[in-house]
C-alpha cells in the first residue's frame, strides 16, 4: 500500500509542479491537505483518519472564508442588516475557528494559512462590488459557504473516525445552523 501511494505521488508530481506555478502562488488549502497527507503517510494511519484530516482542513477553510467575507461586509455593506449579520458571523465563527485550531494543534494537523484560489477569487469579485450589488453578493456567498461548512460538519459528526471530532462537529453545527437561518433571512431581505 505504501508503495502504491509513493508511486501515485511520483506519477502526479510533474503535474503538480506544472500546475503550481511559483512558490508564492501555492493554494493554502491544497498545501494543508498535502502536508497532512504526507504526515499521515509516514505513520500507520487509516484512510478514515486521512478523511478526518481532509474534513478538518475543509471546515477551517470555509470558516476562514466566512470571516473574510464578513469583515469585508463590515466595511462595505450598504444594508444595516448585512452589517449586523456580518458582525454576528465574525463573533461566532471566530470562536469556532479558534476551537478548530486548538483541536488541529492537539492532533498535529496542518490547517490552511489563507484562502484557496477559488475562495480568493470569489472574495475579489465580491470586493469589486458596491451598494446593493455588494450586499446581494455577500448574502449569496454567506449562504453558500455556510451550507458547505454545515455539510462538512455534518459529515464530521456522523463519519469521523476520531472520537474527539464528533463532539466538536456537534457544537459547531449548532452555531452554523443558527447562522444559516440568519443568512437565509438576510438573503430574503436583500433580494430585489
Automatic annotation (TrEMBL):
Signal sequence bounds: 1-25
Domain of life, per lineage: Bacteria
Pfam family, one: DUF4142
Domain named DUF4142: residues: 52-186
InterPro entries: DUF4142, Ferritin-like
Record carries keyword Ribosomal protein: no
Keyword line: Signal
Xref: PROSITE patterns: PROKAR_LIPOPROTEIN
Name of this protein: Putative membrane protein
Amino acid at each position: 500500500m505504501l508503495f502504491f501511494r509513493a508511486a501515485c505521488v511520483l506519477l502526479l508530481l510533474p503535474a503538480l509542479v506544472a500546475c503550481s506555478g511559483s512558490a508564492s502562488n501555492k493554494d493554502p488549502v491544497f498545501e494543508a491537505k498535502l502536508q497532512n497527507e504526507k504526515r499521515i503517510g509516514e505513520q500507520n494511519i487509516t484512510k478514515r483518519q486521512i478523511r478526518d484530516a481532509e474534513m478538518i482542513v475543509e471546515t477551517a477553510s470555509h470558516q476562514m472564508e466566512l470571516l473574510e467575507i464578513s469583515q469585508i461586509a463590515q466595511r462595505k455593506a450598504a444594508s444595516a442588516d448585512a452589517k449586523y449579520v456580518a458582525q454576528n458571523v465574525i463573533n461566532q465563527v471566530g470562536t469556532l475557528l479558534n476551537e478548530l485550531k486548538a483541536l488541529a494543534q492537539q492532533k498535529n494537523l496542518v490547517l490552511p494559512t489563507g484562502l484557496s484560489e477559488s475562495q480568493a477569487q470569489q472574495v475579489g469579485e465580491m470586493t469589486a462590488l458596491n451598494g446593493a450589488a455588494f450586499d446581494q453578493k455577500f448574502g449569496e456567498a454567506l449562504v453558500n459557504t455556510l451550507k458547505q461548512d454545515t455539510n462538512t460538519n455534518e459529515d464530521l459528526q456522523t463519519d469521523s473516525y476520531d472520537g474527539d471530532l464528533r463532539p466538536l462537529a456537534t457544537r459547531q453545527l449548532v452555531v452554523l445552523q443558527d447562522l444559516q437561518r440568519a443568512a437565509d433571512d438576510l438573503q430574503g431581505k436583500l433580494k430585489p
